[in-house]
């Protein structure tokens, strides 16, 4: 019997455009710490193999700081005689072989003996690993290539590939049929083709939601998910790695090891639920209850707000209030609509063309007019205002 750790989607070095420099650096250290926890789990559970199913790095050209960090972690594994086997994912693979020769970051560590990298992305490669106990494990895999058509299965064109030994593991990095959504616009592994793989375990990276299932073939299909919440929307997902147990002639077993990660919170507030007498104070109270100094915080304002209520909300002040009480904060108003008093006129706060606004306001005023004289006056005013606006923009008079 042997034990192994299975990890994927660490996304070391992820860049967050809106972060202050010191917070970005601290956030990147948090991503490193989450990967270090998987290495510590390997040491604590006395495993004999460490498997990386892609996207260890967030880019094909990671920072030197992250390269050094990974080298140090692989050194910890090597000192404990735990070999590491990896594939490249879509984030840490160049989009073309014309970019930096198609080299992926782990290739230099492969050259130094720190990891066994299965680099090819069009055929299944394999390596025979003899672990501490003397057992031999076959690890096969194929790095990610998103040159495949959306919805196609990267395994479809492969010739039948038999297991490499009594204990056999496969590493892949794609979405999986049934686990990725119906509108998933990427290559996807078909269950029919996964069933044909002659193996004990299929370890798949790419989807950040962890999952597992037993295939009809008897193989165990594992998706470890990510080691840290990478982006907003992932707040409720588990983060961690799998502890895999393999024994000849027996079904593979897996236990999920959860990690404690940096808090992430999305607060969704509908405009209709706000205190209309003091919406600013209402929002600040809700933010204070939802944040902490270590929280990655996002406020989503949605629904509808009457114009006079919206004008009582100071978004800049609200952003400052949230930033002072969290590690990082952002406010989204793309789905917030402002209801103006002219008829049933509603505008999104997410951005609009001023000429469209002027036109719609004038039309709404015309519809609310009580007689033809007022309606005629509204039409004339609309044409005059739009003509002036177009001249100011230097585009001539609108037709």
Question: What does this protein look like?
Answer:
This protein is an alpha/beta fold and 399 residues long. 29% of the residues lie in helices and 24% in strands. It has nine helices and 19 strands. The chain has helices at 21-44, 64-79, 106-111, 191-196, 279-290, 307-310, 315-324, 354-368, 372-393; strands at residues 2-7, 49-53, 84-87, 116-117, 125-130, 136-141, 168-173, 175-176, 188-189, 201-205, 211-214, 220-223, 240-246, 253-258, 264-270, 296-306, 328-332, 336-339, 346-348. The protein has a six-stranded mixed beta sheet. Helix 8 (354-368) packs antiparallel against helix 9. The protein is elongated, with a radius of gyration of 28 Å. 35% of the residues are buried.
Brief description of this entry?
The chain is 29% helix and 24% strand. It is of the alpha/beta class. The strands form four sheets. The chain has a six-stranded mixed sheet. A six-stranded mixed sheet has the order 5-6-7-10-12-11, with no helix packed on it.
Topology:
Elements: E1 2-7, H1 21-44, E2 49-53, H2 64-79, E3 84-87, H3 106-111, E4 116-117, E5 125-130, E6 136-141, E7 168-173, E8 175-176, E9 188-189, H4 191-196, E10 201-205, E11 211-214, E12 220-223, E13 240-246, E14 253-258, E15 264-270, H5 279-290, E16 296-306, H6 307-310, H7 315-324, E17 328-332, E18 336-339, E19 346-348, H8 354-368, H9 372-393
Parallel strand pairs: 1-2, 2-3, 3-4, 6-7, 7-10, 8-9, 10-12, 15-16, 16-17, 16-18
Antiparallel strand pairs: 1-13, 5-6, 11-12, 13-14, 18-19
């Amino acid at each position: 019997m042997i034990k192994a750790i299975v990890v994927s989607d660490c996304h070391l070095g992820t860049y967050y455009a809106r972060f202050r420099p010191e917070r970005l650096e601290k956030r990147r250290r948090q991503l490193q710490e989450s990967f270090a926890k998987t290495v510590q789990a390997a040491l604590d559970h006395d495993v004999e193999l460490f498997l990386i199913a892609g996207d260890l790095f967030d880019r094909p050209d990671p920072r030197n700081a992250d390269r050094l960090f990974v080298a140090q972690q692989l050194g910890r594994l090597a000192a404990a005689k735990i070999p590491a086997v990896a594939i490249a994912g879509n984030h840490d693979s160049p989009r073309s072989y014309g970019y930096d020769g198609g080299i992926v970051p782990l290739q230099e560590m492969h050259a130094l003996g720190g990891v066994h990298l299965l680099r090819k992305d069009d055929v299944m490669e394999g390596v025979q690993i003899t672990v501490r106990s003397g057992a031999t494990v076959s690890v096969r895999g194929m790095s990610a290539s998103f040159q495949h058509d959306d919805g196609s299965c990267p395994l479809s064109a492969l010739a039948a590939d038999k297991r490499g030994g009594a204990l056999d593991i496969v590493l892949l990095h794609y979405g999986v049929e049934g686990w990725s959504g119906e509108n998933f616009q990427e290559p996807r592994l078909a269950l029919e083709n996964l069933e044909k793989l002659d193996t004990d375990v299929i370890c798949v990276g790419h989807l950040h939601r962890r999952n597992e299932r037993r295939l009809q073939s008897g193989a165990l299909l594992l998706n470890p998910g990510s080691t840290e919440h990478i982006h907003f929307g992932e707040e409720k997902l588990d983060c961690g790695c799998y502890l895999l147990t393999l024994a000849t002639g027996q079904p593979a077993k897996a236990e999920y090891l959860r990690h404690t990660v940096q808090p992430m919170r999305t607060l969704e507030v509908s405009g209709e639920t706000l205190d209309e007498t003091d919406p600013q104070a209402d929002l600040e109270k809700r933010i204070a209850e939802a944040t902490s100094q270590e929280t990655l915080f996002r406020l989503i304002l949605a629904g509808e707000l009457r114009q006079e209520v919206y004008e009582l909300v100071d978004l800049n002040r609200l952003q400052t209030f949230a930033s002072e009480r969290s590690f990082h904060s952002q406010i989204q108003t793309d789905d917030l609509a402002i209801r103006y008093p002219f008829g049933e006129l509603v505008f999104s706060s997410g951005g609009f063309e001023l000429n469209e606004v002027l036109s719609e306001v004038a039309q709404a005023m015309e519809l609310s007019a009580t007689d033809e004289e007022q309606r005629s006056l509204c039409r004339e005013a609309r044409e005059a205002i739009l003509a002036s606006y177009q001249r100011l923009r230097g585009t001539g008079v609108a037709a």
